[in-house]
Amino acid sequence: MHNYICETCGVQYESSVNEPAACTICNEERQYVSSKGQSWTTLEAMVESGIYKTEVSVEEENLYRVQTNPGFGIGQTAYLVKGNGYNVLWDCVTYIDEETIEAIQQLGGIDAIALSHPHYYSTQVEWAETFDATLYIHEDDKKWVTRTSDKIVFWSGDSLELSEGINLQRIGGHFKGGTIIEWVEGNNKQGVLLCGDIIRIVADREWVSFMYSYPNFIPLPSGTVERIAHRMEDLTYTRIYDAFNRVIKENAAEAVQRSAKRYVDALNGELFHT
């Protein structure tokens, strides 16, 4: 019996004798099956290969980047937020080994794991059970969970306070349960958002974007983006980190509102004529 992992998205499945017939995460218009076909591995095989290393490094005070090299699956970055006696892992990466565990334990371990959306579920249950951490997933994305655990809490509504100054905010968009984390104490109490790619920082670091599917270039409706922008007005932040090491360090709230307007104007034919 093995907990097979899809090599394209990095998400782990329930224990089975045989490889799953297909990856439910990849066989959907927001993701894709590799042009080489569906392929599977296991965490044990990844460890035995000696290829991978998940590194934990300081991003800023009380915020640590958790990233696997070389990249695996989608290649996202997770983050560890050190709160006041309460550590939260934001999103997840697939590869975890004894070195990873030791590095995290030196920072005080993990009390909670919170996920932005299904593409980053990876080996979330391995992480939750290793660190005896509660795993928070919005109930609107419950159907995408590929490995169950009694560590999982399906939360509801638009916001959830994990600890003082650390809030989950469901803003939807990319997925119905699409969530970001509002770290009010971050950046000298000016506020930091960790967004996965529910909000994605673009090549020009003064702007962000919003998509239904990034690999397949499917945009969100203008009304959805307007709703997200309105929701963001209620949050406390001046800095944003996305899932791919892009950061807007200052005036991030203004960048989000400006970007939402540009996005909507483009969809409505008001930004340009071509």
Write up this protein.
This is Metallo-beta-lactamase domain-containing protein. It comes from Fictibacillus halophilus. 20% of the residues lie in helices and 30% in strands. The chain has a single domain (2-267), classed as 4-Layer Sandwich (Metallo-beta-lactamase, Chain A). It is built from 6 helices and 20 strands. The longest helix is centred in the last third of the chain and has 16 residues, at 252-267. It has helices at 43-49, 98-106, 124-131, 186-189, 222-232, 252-267; strands at 2-6, 12-16, 40-42, 53-60, 63-69, 78-82, 87-90, 112-114, 134-138, 152-155, 159-163, 166-170, 179-183, 192-194, 200-201, 208-209, 211-213, 218-219, 239-241, 247-248. It has 274 residues and is of the alpha+beta class. α5 (222-232) runs antiparallel to α6 (252-267). A 7-stranded mixed sheet has the order 4-5-6-7-8-9-10, covered by helices on one side. The protein has a 6-stranded mixed sheet with strand order 11-12-13-14-19-20.
What's the name of the CATH homologous superfamily? Ribonuclease Z/Hydroxyacylglutathione hydrolase-like
Mean pLDDT: 97
Low-confidence segments, given as residue ranges, are: none
| CATH fold-level topology | Metallo-beta-lactamase, Chain A
Global outline? globular
**Taking Cα atoms only, what radius of gyration do you get, to the nearest Å?**
18 Å
Gap from first CA to last CA: 56 Å
The helix content, as a percent range, equals 10-25%
Q: What order do the strands of the largest sheet run in, or round the barrel if closed? A: 4-5-6-7-8-9-10
CATH architecture: 4-Layer Sandwich
* CATH structural class: Alpha Beta
Number of strands: 20
Oligomerization category of the chains in this entry: single chain
Q: How many helices does DSSP assign?
A: 6
Order of helices and strands: EEEHEEEEHEHEEEEEHEEEEEHEEH
Number of structural domains: 1
Q: Which structural class do the helices and strands define?
A: alpha+beta
Fraction of residues in β-strands:
25-35%
Q: Describe the biggest sheet?
A: 7 strands, mixed
